[in-house]
């Protein structure tokens, strides 16, 4: 149904701390098709944003290994001048914080116009201005002619995020990367922005990578989901399978810890311990091992791999097969100490 | 008599300008809020940015100047303008802040951070003070050895616990928690929320929980007030609000909550479409000329809404 | 915009008024008075007393102050006993020299600061950056008057490349090209000496602004648009980093006042600063009070200019 647009192949992104390199993204393999929304879910430190930035080549000081094939071409090894022909044109990006993602000293119109100027120099100034207004209309900004002359601080957060989206889709990209696009917004605004992203996808048939920590947003938007923990993908499945039949202990714990709007007041599940920092990630064995200490060591694989447990459903490590939550739910504040 | 009662609270800020810096207009951050909380309960104050929920919380504890209205804590007016809050009341009401990264002084040790309210209100020997701080840290689930560490050595969830340890140091009766978990990851959020419930039972605390996250509000609260542009639009028990919302704004807010069941997408889209249509259609009658909510009207004993 | 200018100017008036009282009282508190330097010590004390009475020096301070300030607002600051000239006229002669020196210093300051700051900020943590920051530390550490003396000795006396005193070669006719060239030639060394030291603040400011702006999210947005690195720097980083530099401009004026006082004395450059120091040592109070008042007013004006510039260039606080 969907043709493959992007294929990330054993991508490792490492950052230098002191004199060593530490992998924030560790051998991630993932593909995105046209007209598909793939969500990447994880908490802070999971490497989900580092992955998004790697695809766009936005890390200024990182070591990238592995390949990122966009329409068959490896863009991970592309020189900057060639990558710049793709960024903003074929691949667009929406950022988390509309407060800071726009240049405070440039008008909204100029900022949208810049991305047109960069990739479609053949457009006359008048046409560019017309296109800017067209884009502002498309993302739902009232009085677009007036809005072009405004500075970012004159707009509300939701309106600013619409401008960020207008920049991302200005050249009708085939791939859109949305990094926590609604985290900084109120729920009603979140809904509008998500609707807008969905509408743009339906119109253009673009593939979308949606980076988020919010499983609610995932449930509303995604076709497929990859769950990341400590730099690795621990589970991939289509949205229905993931929310109804998650296998990996981390995914299951995460689902249990949301104060779901539908549930009665009860205790939330707490994942023991804390997400280890980049320098202290366990490099051997199952990375989630230390956070489920009640599970027998022998349940884990020595070198955890992704196993296909059902068609299209991959789970890392063997520990999922007999995972259970701890039976006695005592006061959990004391084993939360690291 | 309610434990905390807020009557017709107004917090207005003047906007100055012109050559002589005269008052030109007034921003009505909080515009006539009434609320009442019973002891041991959790009252949720919900609203989007700019709704005045944070200002309300800050006004109750005396951090924002009150223009008019009264705040009765155990029957005693604690917010009469011009007078400072009596020390005994200041001990009894504490606040937990949103951002565990900026609300703790990075140059101070945990010992000094947690002991600060003790130093303000109780004369303790150094020995005694350390003992109390260790006790408090254990109470919030941090190891007693942490007292000589600095905030940056802790994770976000742990920092929020340090903030809570500081807030409960004086055994307060009321805690105002302003978005206490919104800067935290989901799993850490769960930890802090559970913990807040535990200490509520242990210390018979009353909470005023300010949040934009309806999932958290529903999970934590007995009573909910929904604010919009400085005014209340609806107030009631958790069941009143979630099962029988009356105001179009509340309905819209509730329908915007993401649902964890992807199979409901289409149904939700239809519901939201309908709610939005209703909102657009009746906006004029549910809000006044300035786009503000009308005064609350009682629907049942517990439930009231700003109906036209 | 004009409303704000008007409001700020109105606020300046009481500031300058307070300053004038302060200046006047300080001058009064100094030992001696306007007569001390004027008179021959052998004159009969009774005659001095009569003279004091006649000049109003025995009146209460506020009466004296009122006399002084009412004249001052009309531009009459009294007589300089040293030069036997009205103070206003004396300062008028010197003022243009100081303004030219200050302008030259400002130009040199920015000519040095902007390229160094940009290199240092853009390539921070490289050898070039370390070299430049090393220089700024030296600049912070070296006292201006010692550095200026060194410059004067090396380039003025030792190599003889620059004149060592005055503001123009004697005998050149005002209005000719030779006169202008001579003026510039005399300004060059003092201005450079001052600029090399005062510029370090601006270099550091620009460097840290660039490093700061480089990490802003909107820079990532610019890269994600496909902008080349040079465009990212020129369009986004530099423009945004120059903003505080522009706003700092007014405060530079305050810095220049302190600088010119030393520099003019060291280079025997006939400006207000040189006049100021020599008047203090000779107790020429009417000149000193007038100059302090003028310097104070210039500082207040500098702060006003800074605020206005920021209001004009930064859309976030743009004055409507």
From TrEMBL, chain C:
Any Gene Ontology CC annotation: plasma membrane
Example GO BP: transmembrane transport
Location of the ABC transmembrane type-1 domain: 95-306
One Pfam family matching this protein: BPD_transp_1
InterPro entries cross-referenced by the UniProt entry: BPD_transp_1_N, MetI-like, MetI-like_sf
CDD domains the UniProt entry points to: TM_PBP2
Protein name: ABC transporter permease
């Amino acid at each position: 149904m969907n043709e493959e647009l992007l294929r990330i192949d054993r991508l490792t992104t490492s950052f230098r701390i002191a004199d060593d390199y530490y992998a924030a993204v560790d051998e991630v393999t993932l593909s995105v098709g046209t007209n598909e929304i793939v969500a990447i879910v994880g908490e802070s430190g999971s490497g989900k944003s580092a992955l998004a930035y790697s695809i766009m080549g936005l890390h200024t000081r990182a070591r990238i290994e592995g390949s990122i094939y966009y329409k068959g071409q490896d863009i991970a090894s592309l020189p900057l001048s060639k990558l710049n022909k793709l960024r903003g044109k074929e691949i667009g990006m929406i950022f988390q914080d509309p407060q800071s993602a726009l240049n405070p000293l440039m008008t909204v119109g100029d900022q949208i116009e810049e991305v047109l100027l960069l990739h479609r120099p053949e457009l006359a100034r008048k046409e560019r201005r017309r296109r800017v207004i067209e884009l502002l209309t498309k993302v739902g900004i009232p009085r677009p002619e007036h809005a072009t002359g405004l500075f970012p601080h004159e707009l509300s957060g939701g309106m600013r995020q619409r401008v960020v989206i207008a920049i991302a889709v200005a050249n009708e990209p085939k791939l859109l990367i949305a990094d926590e696009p609604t985290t900084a917004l109120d729920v009603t605004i979140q809904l509008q922005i998500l609707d807008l992203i969905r509408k743009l996808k339906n119109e253009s048939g673009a593939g979308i990578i949606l980076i988020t920590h919010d499983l609610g947003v995932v449930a509303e938007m995604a076709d497929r989901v990859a769950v990341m923990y400590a730099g690795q993908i621990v589970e991939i499945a289509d949205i229905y399978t993931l929310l109804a039949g998650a296998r990996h202990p981390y995914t299951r714990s995460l689902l249990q810890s949301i104060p779901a709007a539908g549930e009665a007041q009860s205790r939330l599940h707490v994942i023991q311990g804390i997400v280890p920092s980049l320098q202290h990630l366990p490099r051997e064995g199952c990375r989630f091992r230390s956070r489920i200490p009640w599970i027998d060591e022998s349940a884990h694989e020595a070198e955890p791999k992704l196993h296909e447990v059902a068609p299209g459903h991959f789970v890392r490590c063997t520990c999922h097969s007999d995972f259970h939550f701890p039976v006695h739910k005592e006061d959990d504040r004391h084993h939360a100490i690291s | 008599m309610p434990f905390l009662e807020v009557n017709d609270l107004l917090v207005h800020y003047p906007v100055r300008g012109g050559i002589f810096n005269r008052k030109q207009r007034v921003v009505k951050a909080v515009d006539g809020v009434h609320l009442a909380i019973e002891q041991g309960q959790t009252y949720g104050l919900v609203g989007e940015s700019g709704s005045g929920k944070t200002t309300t919380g800050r006004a109750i504890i005396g951090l924002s100047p009150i223009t008019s209205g009264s705040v009765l804590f155990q029957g005693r007016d604690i917010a009469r303008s011009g007078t400072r809050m009596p020390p005994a009341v200041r001990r009894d009401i504490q606040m937990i802040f949103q951002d565990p990264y900026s609300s703790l002084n990075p140059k101070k040790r945990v010992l000094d951070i947690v002991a600060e309210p003790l130093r303000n209100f109780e004369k303790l020997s150094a020995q005694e003070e350390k003992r109390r701080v260790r006790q408090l840290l254990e109470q919030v689930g941090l190891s007693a050895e942490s007292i000589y560490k600095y905030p940056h050595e802790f994770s976000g969830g742990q920092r929020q616990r340090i903030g809570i340890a500081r807030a409960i140091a004086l055994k307060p009766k009321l805690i105002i928690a302003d978005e206490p978990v919104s800067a935290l990851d989901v799993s850490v959020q769960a930890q802090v929320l559970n913990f807040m419930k535990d200490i509520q039972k242990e210390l018979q605390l009353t909470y005023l929980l300010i949040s934009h996250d309806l999932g958290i509000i529903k999970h934590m609260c007995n009573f909910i007030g929904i604010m919009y542009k400085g005014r209340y639009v609806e107030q009631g028990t958790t069941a009143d609000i979630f099962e029988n919302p009356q105001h179009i704004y509340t309905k819209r807010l509730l329908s915007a909550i993401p649902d964890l069941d992807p199979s409901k997408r289409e149904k939700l889209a239809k519901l939201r479409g309908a709610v939005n249509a209703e909102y657009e259609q009746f906006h004029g009658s549910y809000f006044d000329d300035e786009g503000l909510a009308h005064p609350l009207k009682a629907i049942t004993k517990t439930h009231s809404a700003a109906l036209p | 915009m004009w409303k704000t200018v008007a409001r700020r100017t109105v606020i300046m008036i009481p500031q300058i008024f307070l300053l004038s009282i302060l200046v006047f009282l300080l001058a009064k508190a100094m030992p001696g008075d306007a007569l001390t330097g004027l008179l021959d010590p052998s004159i009969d004390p009774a005659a001095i007393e009569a003279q004091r009475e006649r000049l109003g020096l025995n009146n209460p301070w506020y009466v004296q102050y009122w006399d002084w300030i009412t004249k001052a607002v009309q531009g009459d600051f009294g007589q300089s006993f040293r030069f036997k000239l009205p103070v206003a006229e004396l300062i008028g002669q010197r003022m243009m020299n100081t303004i030219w020196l200050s302008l030259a210093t400002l130009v040199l300051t920015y000519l040095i600061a902007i390229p160094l700051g940009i290199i240092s900020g853009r390539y921070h943590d490289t050898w070039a950056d370390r070299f430049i920051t090393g220089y700024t530390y030296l600049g912070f550490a070296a006292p201006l008057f010692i550095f200026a003396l060194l410059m004067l000795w090396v380039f003025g006396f030792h190599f003889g490349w620059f004149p060592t005193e005055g503001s123009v070669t004697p005998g050149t006719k005002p209005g000719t090209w030779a006169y202008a060239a001579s003026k510039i030639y005399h300004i060059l060394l003092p201005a450079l000496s001052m600029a090399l030291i005062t510029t370090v603040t601006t270099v550091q400011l620009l460097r840290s602004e660039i490093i700061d702006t480089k990490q802003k999210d909107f820079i990532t947005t610019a890269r994600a648009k496909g902008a080349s690195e040079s465009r990212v720097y020129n369009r986004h980083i530099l423009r945004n980093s120059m903003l505080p530099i522009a706003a700092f401009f007014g405060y530079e004026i305050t810095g220049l006042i302190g600088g010119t006082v030393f520099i003019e004395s060291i280079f025997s450059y006939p400006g207000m600063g040189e006049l100021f120091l020599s008047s203090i040592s000779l107790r020429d109070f009417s000149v000193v009070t007038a100059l302090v008042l003028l310097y104070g007013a210039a500082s207040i004006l500098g702060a006003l200019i800074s605020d206005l510039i920021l209001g004009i260039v930064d859309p976030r606080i743009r004055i409507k």
